[in-house]
Amino acid sequence: MKNKLFVMSAASGAGKTTLKDLVIKDFPDIKYSISATTRKPREGEIDGVHYFFKTKEEFEQMIKDDALVEYNLVHGNYYGTPKSFVEKTLAEGNRVLFDLDVFGKVNFDKVYPDATGIFILPPSDEELERRLRGRGTDSEEVIQLRLANAKKEIEFAKTKGKYEYTIVNDDLQKAADELRAILSQK
């Protein structure tokens, strides 16, 4: 039986979204989990496709209603995984690929301990900073916050995380091939 749940984690800018976009189309039975968030949509993002965009009040009601598998406050915004999405996707016979930060994954593992963890690392701190700056979407303050958080997240993942696989994203095609191999395992 194939693994049903996969959790990718990485510091912002490590390339997990790019990797996911390259690979997931090769697996029609794997659905990408849509998280709920209180952050504002970026250009081109659609509610219910990229995220479920919520107000802070709506998100806090979801917390009170125990409607989330996990949630966390990241970069000043809430992010969380709606239980209903996971249950519906599994009931349809599909597998699910999640994008969770390292702290959210710890909470997720309490609910789904058999999920396969995949940690994506940037090749270096310098390359991570170059990628974050290259996006052109964040202020200097946000970039510095993301860099500081990246160091904490990487250390946490190495010491306290449950990741069966680590992919260093130094060559996009090689990293994509490694991710495909993980998702293909029985």
From TrEMBL:
GO terms for molecular function: ATP binding; GMP kinase activity. Keywords: ATP-binding, Cytoplasm, Kinase, Nucleotide-binding, Transferase. It is found in: Cytoplasm. ATP binds at A10, A11, S12, G13, A14, G15, K16, T17. Residues 3-184 form the Guanylate kinase-like domain. One of its GO terms (cellular component) is cytosol. It catalyses: GMP + ATP = GDP + ADP. Its main location: cytoplasm. The keyword Translocase does not apply. Its EC number is 2.7.4.8. PANTHER family: GUANYLATE KINASE, GUANYLATE KINASE-RELATED. Belongs to the guanylate kinase family. Essential for recycling GMP and indirectly, cGMP. This is Guanylate kinase. It comes from Fibrobacter succinogenes (strain ATCC 19169 / S85).
